[in-house]
Amino acid sequence: MSLICAIVFGTIGNQALKSKPLGALLYLLGYVVALFLPCHAGQRLLDETLSVSDAVYESKWYDCDVRTMKDILFIIARCQNPQYLDALPLGSFNYPLFLLIVKTSYSYLTLLQQST
Predict the structure, then answer these.
(1) Which of 75, 77, 86, 92 is the most buried (most CB within 10 A)?
(2) Using CA atoms, how far apart are residues 27 and 21, in angstroms rounded to an integer?
(3) Which uninterrupted H or E stretch holds 73?
(4) Which residues make Cβ contacts (< 8 Å) with residue 86, sequence separation at least 6?
């Protein structure tokens, strides 16, 4: 997916520089937003699942009964492994994936600019 997105971004950027800049920029903006939204959602999911253990630890767990304290230990242990949105061949949707695709698309754009 990252390769396809990068090629699409690069070719649309090349089209924006060569001919029909307004239409190509609108297409490029749409594709970038369509890629950014799942990456942003995946990054927020990752950040929120990592912050659950901190919130549970900062609560008044020491005022609870013993059974609840044991349950809180299980919650904190479970929260050490974050949840994330899968982008199966690549890893997960997050900001580093978005940045990787944007950098690769810029590389394709410069390659297309040099070849034509």
Answers:
(1) 92
(2) 10
(3) helix 66-78
(4) 92, 93
Spatial CB neighbours of 9, under 8 Å, sequence gap ≥ 6: 28, 31, 32, 101, 102, 105, 108, 109
In b/e form, how buried is each residue of 39-74, taking b as 16+ CB within 10 angstroms? Answer: beebbebbeebeeebeeeeeeeeeeeeeeeeeebee
Closest CA to 86 of 41, 19, 32, 33: 41
Structure confidence by residue, pLDDT tens digits, 67-115: 999 999 898 888 888 888 887 777 789 999 999 999 999 999 999 989 8
Torsion on CA atoms 65, 71, 74, 79, rounded to nearest 10: -100
Other Cβ atoms less than 10 A from the Cβ of 12: the count is 22
Say how far apart CA 84 and CA 78 lie, in whole Å.
14
Is the sign of the CA dihedral 71, 74, 75, 76 positive or negative?
A: positive
